[in-house]
Amino acid sequence: MTADSDAARAIEPVLHPGGLALLDSLPPYDEQDVLRRSAALRAAGHSPELVSAVLTQSRLRARAAEKFGEFADSMLFTPDGLEQATRLPVAALHARRFQRAGVASVTDLGCGIGGDAMALAGLGLEVQAVDRDPVAVAVALLNLRSFPTATARQGTAEDHDPSASEGLWMDPARRVTSRGAGRRLHDPEDYSPPLSLVLDLARRLGADGDLGPLGAKLGPGIDRSALPAGTEVQWLSWHGQVLEATLWCGPLAGAGVHSSALVVDRGGAHRLERDETGIDDPVPGALGEHLYEPDGAVIRAGLIGRLAEDLGARTVDPTIAYLTADRRIDTPFARGYAVRDVMPFGIKRLITYLREHRLGVLEIKKRGTAVEPEELRRKLRPRRFGTGSATLILTRIDGEQSVIVASPHRDLPAEDLP
């Protein structure tokens, strides 16, 4: 039996109206209540297959709330589809690119469970959701049932006719599964479909040699040099975690933009960009009164120099992505710290310092050193020294292994900082 047939058998009972009605009638999922709930459903005359299917969907809906919010309560999922699905707020950001560019119809090639298609249709765009997996198509059809401008069908990127819509959205598979374990693919030609096919579709979608309006999710480790001129790659960070790099072609790309970072936090979405000429890397200099840890999206997008320029900052070491400056500037693109002390790295020296300053609550960060934070914590055993708190930043300064003792800007009011 193949994995596809397993997935079909697991979800097929819920696709019928009676199965979906039973699923929608269940109370919120509770892991402690599963056995009792299963027994009650069977006693009510429901088949073991249906009971298993609706309880599985109930569990997946509970997990999906993080990505889809209240929409999860009316959706269907496959385990792999949920794991790979774009968070709905991020999908909405993708969809707005098409809307701002005046693209009225989009094909979502490799739609999975339909998350991106939902966001596109939610903005009123005409959407064709396409996937080679019939189970994914069935799930996407149900998830798109409330959007009159969206349809779903089976198909492949290799056979797709770009003229079927004004724009294309693609999410190539970037994992290979073996014996139940997923392994990330780093070479974009190993994606399914490969990057070369994605770019070919963009060319066929365009006119007069220009790339057409195509967006495609790529792995965050993509090498920008592997992509043609005239495209924008945007690295997106979601509350501190780099989730994706997205390729934007044609009118979807920022004019003259080489790469960009989009940092999403509680304050909203913040964009930093560079053009084709770029900005030189910052020069190294002495450690100042403040240290800045750039967001991962900023680092991957090659925007350290741009951020340093905005902050009036320099690097603590030419090989390390920490910046330092003599004044505090709050920015969504980096975490800021007030420097309290700095010393050469050494276990005995650190223990003495922690004891003298009664520091027992530590955040330990590292960059450019082989020391592992948790291993260091075990050696220091800081809780014996007191209740004071600090951040220890292990890094190189002018080539030397060093420890910076700091306090996060977020924990200190501006008037308490230099």
Secondary structure layout plus pairing:
Layout: H1 3-15, H2 17-25, H3 34-43, H4 48-68, H5 79-84, H6 88-100, E1 105-109, H7 115-122, E2 126-131, H8 134-143, E3 150-154, E4 167-170, E5 175-178, E6 181-184, H9 195-205, E7 214-218, E8 232-238, E9 241-248, E10 257-265, E11 268-275, E12 290-294, H10 296-300, H11 304-311, E13 314-315, E14 323-325, E15 334-344, H12 347-357, E16 359-366, H13 373-380, E17 388-397, E18 400-408
Parallel strand pairs: 1-2, 1-4, 2-3, 4-7, 8-10, 16-17
Antiparallel strand pairs: 5-6, 7-9, 8-9, 10-11, 12-14, 12-15, 13-14, 15-18, 17-18
Helix pairs in contact: 1-4, 1-8, 2-4, 3-4, 6-7
Explain this structure.
The chain is α/β, with parallel strands linked by helices. The chain has three domains: 3-62, no CATH class; 83-275, Vaccinia Virus protein VP39 (Rossmann fold), CATH 3.40.50; 310-416, no CATH class. It is 32% helix and 27% strand. The protein has 13 helices and 18 strands. The protein has helices spanning 3-15, 17-25, 34-43, 48-68, 79-84, 88-100, 115-122, 134-143, 195-205, 296-300, 304-311, 347-357, 373-380; strands at 105-109, 126-131, 150-154, 167-170, 175-178, 181-184, 214-218, 232-238, 241-248, 257-265, 268-275, 290-294, 314-315, 323-325, 334-344, 359-366, 388-397, 400-408. The strands form three sheets. The protein has a nine-stranded mixed beta sheet with strand order 3-2-1-4-7-9-8-10-11. Strands 13-14-12-15-18-17-16 form a seven-stranded mixed beta sheet. Strands 5-6 form a two-stranded antiparallel sheet. β17 and β18 form a beta hairpin. α3 packs across α4 and α6 packs across α7 (115-122). The longest helix is centred in the first third of the chain and has 21 residues, at 48-68. It is flat, with a radius of gyration of 25 Å. The termini are far apart.
